Amino acid sequence: MNSNQIELIYTALAECIARVGEPKAPLLLATLAFDLLIRQTDADTAIEHILQAERLTHV
Amino acid sequence: MESRDGEAAITLAEPRQVPVVIAGGGPVGLTLAALLAHHGVPCLVLEADASWCEGSRAICLSRRSQEIFGWVGADRALTAKGLSWVGGRSYFRGTEVLHFEMPSEPAERFAPMVNIQQYYVEQYAHAAALRAGGVAVRWSARVCAVRPRTSGVEVEFQTADGHTHRVWTDWLVACDGGRSTVREQLGLAFEGVQYEGRYVIVDIEQDTRRAVERLAWFDPPSNPGSTILMHRQPDNIWRIDYQVASRDDPSEAVRPENVLPRVQAHLDMIGETAPWKPLWISIYNAKCLTLQSYRQGRILFAGDAAHLVPIFGVRGLNSGLDDAGNLAWKLALVLEGHAGDALLDSYSSERVRATRENIAFGAKSTEFMAPPHHGFALMRDAALRLALVAPGVRSLINPRQTSPVEYANSPLNQPDDRGFAGGARPGMPAPEATLLTAQGSGHLTSLFGTCFVVLYFSSNATRPTQWHERSTAARGGAAALRWVRVAAGGAPDDHSVVDELGQAWQRYNAKEGTLYLIRPDGYVMGRWRGAASAPKDFDAVLRCALKDNSHE
What we know:
The structure holds two protein chains of two kinds. Chain A is an all-alpha fold. Chain A has helices spanning 3-20, 25-37, 43-57. Chain A has one domain (3-57). The mean pLDDT of chain A is 96. The radius of gyration of chain B is 24 Å and the shape is globular.
């Protein structure tokens, strides 16, 4: 994915979070993350993404 | 800074009529004055302040802006004083998340970006204007009324002694900034958006040996929750910008007792321990605003009077200087009778288009640097973390620095020759190349800025006869047409440069016989593969394009 596409997605998701509002943002993001994770080739890869995100929240 | 005392003797006492009045003697107004003087157009600059500005203000000059300064011989002072960027670094909390390099090589004419305080830019532009002659700058002269007429504009201004003066001008150019009196007098309003996020901007003096980089910290331990930018300036000055919380009162935020501890905490964090003192404090919020048109009859708008763009990406002053570079030659041609005033409509359409692009980029940068809502704030926090493990995300952190805008669909663009597989289309900035000239090693862009130029790529020293006689047509000033042969080898002379490194032939996608017509502001106006497709008479092309460009 090129930088323009990444920026497009970044903006679209930011605007979507704003549309649903702060209280519903966790639900939106969990739904989105779960949807993307079950499209991974295997569970190990999906679990690795989850653990990486968890590590990054502690930065 | 040097004194400007010596100027008094050449300041016009009370001119009744001048071809051009420039409202505003800031960097754009003074640069426009220098460019007009370079083209032989006298002008009067009216500046409300008593002298050059205080504080660093616009601090980064792009390569394009340095080229424009080169047209009036002000580039040497600028590059001698300015500090060239070598790159940039961004940090999230304590961790580096982006590092980019902007190497400038000795063979390059200008560095990609130079840090310099705005008052030096004003000083050098002012000096260039005075050197060229025909420019009068009236300090402490505030424009108070503007009366447009069919054949000109009556401008009323007040001087420091309280007297009111009137001057009649053929053309008034408003370069009087974001709070433009001229704009207000005409009842024109900006359109666009303003962002809530505010940045305090501070100049401090401190010795440092740190590299000249664009430095950014997101949520640093020194100022949790804030974003901080730092730029090294000449004279041991740091320019520090930091974001303040939306709940903070702007007038409180700029009080020294609130500013200095935050600066000290940050200097401590990054290990800059030398003694320091504050010089200037101000506050800023991002704006994406523009007029719909930069021409209202005989009144033209440039710089902040025409548009306001966010500072992130340094598009403010740089776009204002591009306005001046676009407008000066067109105004000169109109005043000299070489062009109809419709040419000035192309100034507006080209530069409004540039502003729209600058605003689009500036808005993107602002959404990252000063997130306008919770969605962008959350996404930025995520992107900064993800940048540690996903390099593709780092482009979001890049400040998207200014670059010259393409004037696609400009009425001046000639139909493109389909024979090109690359190079620069009509409407694009003419590419740079290192060359051998009769004066030694030089650069292609040094040929631009004065008049129209035909670049003729050929190894044959003799120009085809079909263009030989026409080239001597009596056109002077900015309307002149200069032929320059770009040879692949051999020796340079007064009419030929040698592309020893092959850069020009490659960047212009040239073959034997290729021709490029370059505008006085260094933009490509037309290009042709060779004699078969090229115009028989380039003077006729210019006459046609300049007299009437409203047909497209």
